[in-house]
Design goal:
alpha+beta; extended; three-stranded antiparallel sheet; 157 residues; 29% helix
Length: 157
């Protein structure tokens, strides 16, 4: 009991005692995942973009993809398409390194939005959670497939 109280001083999510009950462990894991997800969303930046002639605050966790158009960036979000006067580099910099996946020179998609991909002729298309299909440039096709494919478990002798 003393260790449990001390653990929460260090911002622990939960404290389990042996023998561990399966339901109790599952509950603790769900709580930990929620804490990590919330922290990740809070750490992402927010942008003031224009949607339908109105300035709207778009949180980083609401962004699904980013598209560059000259001196502007289009933020595809759950609130709609927001236009932001910025460079693609300045828009992507505040995010964690692997948050986005580059599909072409001017288009990046949030990695967590990707459900899968398919080929149509020789062209690769990504399928997103909102049912959008986005083409991947020939130059980026192999790196996109490589980064989305699970690591192989084969060990070389």
């Amino acid at each position: 009991p003393n260790h449990g109280a001390t653990a929460f001083e260090f911002d622990f999510v939960d404290y389990l005692v042996k023998p561990v009950d399966k339901d109790r462990l599952e509950q603790a894991l769900k709580r930990a995942v929620r804490r990590i997800s919330t922290a990740a969303i809070q750490d992402t930046p927010s942008f003031l973009a224009e949607i339908s002639n109105q300035k709207v605050l778009i949180q980083g966790g609401e962004i699904q993809q980013v598209e560059a158009m000259g001196n502007y960036v289009i933020l595809h979000s759950t609130k709609g398409k927001g236009i932001l006067r910025s460079t693609l580099r300045n828009t992507l910099n505040p995010f964690p390194k692997n948050f986005f996946l580059q599909l072409s020179r001017s288009r990046w998609v949030v990695r967590d939005q990707v459900l899968g991909w398919h080929r149509q002729s020789s062209k690769l298309f990504l399928c997103l959670r909102d049912k959008t299909e986005i083409p991947v440039s020939r130059r980026h096709t192999s790196s996109v497939i490589k980064s989305l494919s699970p690591p192989s478990d084969s060990k070389e002798a």
